[in-house]
Amino acid sequence: AGGLVGVVEEELLQPRPLAHEVLLFPSDEARQKLCSWIGSATTTLECCVFVISDARVAAELKEAAARGVAVRLITDDKTALDGGSQVFGMASAGVETLVDPDYELKSGAAPVPRHMHHKYAIVDGRVLLCGSYNWSYSASARNNENCVVTEDVYLVAKYSAEFERLWREFKAAAPLSQQQAAIRIQQIERGNRERRRFAAMARSHRAANVFDVARSAMDIASPGNRKRGRG
Amino acid sequence: AGGLVGVVEEELLQPRPLAHEVLLFPSDEARQKLCSWIGSATTTLECCVFVISDARVAAELKEAAARGVAVRLITDDKTALDGGSQVFGMASAGVETLVDPDYELKSGAAPVPRHMHHKYAIVDGRVLLCGSYNWSYSASARNNENCVVTEDVYLVAKYSAEFERLWREFKAAAPLSQQQAAIRIQQIERGNRERRRFAAMARSHRAANVFDVARSAMDIASPGNRKRGRG
After folding, report:
1. What is the ipTM of this complex?
2. Taking CB atoms and an 8 Å limit, are A132 and B118 in contact across chains?
3. Residue A218 CB-density burial (10 A; 0-12 exposed, 13-18 middle, 19+ buried)
């Protein structure tokens, strides 16, 4: 029996075993498996991950978006601004991105920021990846980490529902398009970093060759300043 | 049919549903559930958790150890020294404790320390708690976090095996009893903190009333010094 009947018979009589494995780190093989699962997405990809600094995982997300997968990302506002963060690159490349609104809960003492600390993803509404594992290089290369891969329908449903709830909450709290805001923040932050770098450089050279430093800093700073002037 | 036959019949005919739930944070109810699972241990408790600063969870572990449960804890060497860490209190109270050996992997650049970043526990070799959730106050009160609770035998077996593997690895790397070392490190660290506190206090008062500060600092420092002298 070929054709559709054949496919149905095969599914019924020889069902594909449900994904059910544990990825343990440090391990480059486990990292490759995680990338394969993300790369296997054909329809949707919901990612809810605290730290994303692994360029290879980020590339999988960008590629998925490029081939028409609806990729949505929820991440943490603070780690998004870390040096190696891949978040803004992905947002620029078309991954729909939200960060936590970071509202400050007043608890008597000084307010402390909230973290969007989840590390999970759902591939095609079917496979859940979930554990301690952030999408960072150190998590795969050095740390002791775990990540469950499962098609358990109860777990997938629970984590999907939480994703939708957070997506609604964070979107409602965003005063403007988060994706636009994310890209803008990154531009500002890059400018700040350049200025801090110059300040440190200037301090260390203060006594000796202050005029040389000032001249080289003006060369660095001027393209950005001209851009801002036009914007 | 009473007695043992009754128990067996009840188990066979009306089996207890296997635990299978997801705890989502921030939520004090979820935190209470987590504490209840830990508190339910009757034989063994294997904990492999990056940050433990929640005094209530720590109390559950200490109580379990006190009532004869074999409690073993693997945690991170760096977070164990954090201000609010409960690790040394638990080690002192009889929880068998290991920290990662933090070997430095040379990868061309400067060596970067490894993290024992897991956040999971196994109750009575039967229930796995696993997710993004560290045992800290902020994780339960502010952050977005998840923790799977499951009796899935495959997952329990995988995480148990990883616990035993890490336990052997970390124990082999320990040059002396880790528990003794842990308590000793905590004593040293407390002393360092006192000295830093005094140094900061002295700096801020330097101009005005330096003699008063020196006198009060000597009052603070002397009991510890006397103890160390006896030890």
Report:
1. 0.73
2. yes
3. exposed
